[in-house]
Each structure stands twice: as structure tokens, then as C-alpha cells.
């Protein structure tokens, strides 16, 4: 059972425009969400995160929005740049604590291609 | 600077061989993880460890085992490799909020 879903396997966006990547989850116990970016032949790198007590978190060109009632989050990239072309994974965890040993559940990924 | 290293970038093994994948982190993290990444399936958790000599099964532990004898090192073992274990294997360690990944090992089992 896929608890974290990214329904768009791929997305193409013109350079300079906004890229919107979506993620849905089913487990209402998830309270912390992350986005990772992955280039071919490299490990994923952390991009941005959001706690369930917030509905928006912004870091430069990247903004993550969380809609808890809809169990939906999205990543906005503005403006999109060619270097943003990569696979993006959303991930979720439940029960943030001081132990930090909660596992992450990942989505299936969305391949973003920025067209120059 | 955070660093997670994996012993091999590419590995080719034969069916039935015993395979060891090594992962080392230099951040003194207690928590370490092994994932495999397959097209259309995303990252799936195989095993994780939250302390030396401690291990927990992830979502797909069948056919795998792990070893954590030292805090910085977490090994994934394929007892008898099979072709359906051909995949990209990713190791990670974690602080309170974020997981840091190694570069991955592309394993091909023929």
C-alpha cells in the first residue's frame, strides 16, 4: 500500500516559469514532510521540509505548501532553471521526537525537465 | 561537511553469490538506513538501524540482512543474490530532521 503518492511520473516546464510538483499521502499520522532532489548516478539531496504545524515554508526559489485536510503537499519552484532538471521525491514521517529514528516513507518520484 | 560513502558505485555479481554493500558516515549519526530505488517504485526501505548492533526491518527486508558493529558503518548483505535484486542501493544516515544519502551502488545480478 503506497502511503505517499506522486501521481505525475514526469513534468516538463519552460525555463523561467513555475514548476509545481504534487504529492498526496494517506497516513494521517504523518507530521513531517520533506522534498528531495536526485540527479542521475547521485544520491538524493535534501531540498526543503515542512512540519504539520505550518502550511507553508519558503526557501529561496522553493516553496512547499501543505494542505492537511486534503492530505496534499506541493513544491513550487519559481523561476525554474535548467539545473532544476532532476527527479523529485517527497517523503513523510510520523512522530517527530528527540530520538530522530523515525523512518521516512518516500513517494515514487517525479522527473522534472526544464526546457531552455 | 556531511559525508556518506558507499564502497562501490557499480557492482556485477552472479546469481547465488553472497554480496556485501558497505556504507560509512562521518557525522556520528545514530540512525542509518538502506534503501533500494527502482523505476516507478521510488525509494523503498530495506532495513534501518538506530544504534550499534540494533536493526529494524523496513518495508522489503526479504532476501537481505544487515550488520552494524560500529556506529559509523552499516552493511547490507545479500545472502544469495538473485536477479530481482538488481537495483540501485542507497545508504543514508539521519540527524533529527534530515536524511543524508550516499552516492548509491548500482548492483547488477546476472
Polypeptide structure, described:
The complex is a heterodimer of chains A (116) and B (110). In chain A, 0% of the residues lie in helices and 54% in strands. Chain A is built from no helices and eleven strands. In chain A, strands 2, 4, 5, 9, 10 and 11 form a six-stranded mixed beta sheet that branches. In chain A, strands 1-3-8-7-6 form a five-stranded antiparallel beta sheet, with no helix packed on it. With 110 residues, chain B is an all-beta fold. Chain B is globular. Chain B starts with a strand and ends with a strand. The A-B interface holds A 6, 9, 32, 34, 36, 41-46, 49, 89, 91, 96, 98-101, 103-109 and B 4, 9, 30-31, 33, 35, 40-45, 48, 50, 58, 90, 92, 94-104, 106.
Q: Could you give the topology of this structure?
A:
The complex is a heterodimer of chains A (116) and B (110).
Chain A: E1 4-5, E2 10-14, E3 19-25, E4 30-38, E5 45-51, E6 56-59, E7 62-67, E8 72-77, E9 86-94, E10 105-106, E11 110-115
Parallel strand pairs in A: 2-11
Antiparallel strand pairs in A: 1-3, 3-8, 4-5, 4-9, 6-7, 7-8, 9-10, 9-11
Chain B: E1 4-6, E2 10-13, E3 19-25, E4 31-38, E5 42-49, E6 56-57, E7 64-70, E8 73-78, E9 87-94, E10 99-101, E11 105-109
Parallel strand pairs in B: 2-11
Antiparallel strand pairs in B: 1-3, 3-8, 4-5, 4-9, 5-6, 7-8, 9-10, 9-11
Amino acid at each position: 500500500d503506497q502511503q505517499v503518492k506522486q501521481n505525475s511520473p514526469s513534468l516538463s516546464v519552460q525555463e523561467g516559469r513555475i514548476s509545481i510538483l504534487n504529492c498526496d499521502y494517506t497516513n494521517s499520522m504523518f507530521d513531517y514532510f520533506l522534498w528531495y532532489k536526485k540527479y542521475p548516478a547521485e544520491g538524493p539531496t535534501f531540498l526543503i521540509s515542512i512540519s504539520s504545524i505550518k502550511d507553508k515554508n519558503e526557501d529561496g526559489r522553493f516553496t512547499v505548501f501543505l494542505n492537511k485536510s486534503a492530505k496534499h503537499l506541493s513544491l513550487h519552484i519559481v523561476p525554474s532553471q535548467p539545473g532544476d532538471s532532476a527527479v523529485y521525491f517527497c517523503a513523510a514521517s510520523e512522530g517527530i521526537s528527540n530520538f530522530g529514528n523515525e523512518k521516512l516513507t518516500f513517494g515514487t518520484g517525479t522527473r522534472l525537465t526544464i526546457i531552455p | 561537511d556531511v559525508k556518506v560513502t558507499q564502497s562501490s558505485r557499480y557492482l556485477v555479481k552472479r546469481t547465488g553469490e553472497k554480496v556485501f554493500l558497505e556504507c560509512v558516515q562521518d557525522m556520528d549519526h545514530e540512525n542509518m538506513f538502506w534503501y533500494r530505488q527502482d523505476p516507478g517504485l521510488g525509494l523503498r526501505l530495506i532495513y534501518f538501524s538506530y544504534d550499534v548492533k540494533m536493526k529494524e526491518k523496513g518495508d522489503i527486508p526479504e532476501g537481505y540482512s544487515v550488520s552494524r558493529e560500529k556506529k559509523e558503518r552499516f552493511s547490507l548483505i545479500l545472502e544469495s543474490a538473485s536477479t530481482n535484486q538488481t537495483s540501485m542501493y542507497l545508504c543514508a544516515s539521519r540527524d533529527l530532521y534530515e536524511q543524508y544519502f550516499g552516492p548509491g551502488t548500482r548492483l547488477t545480478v546476472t
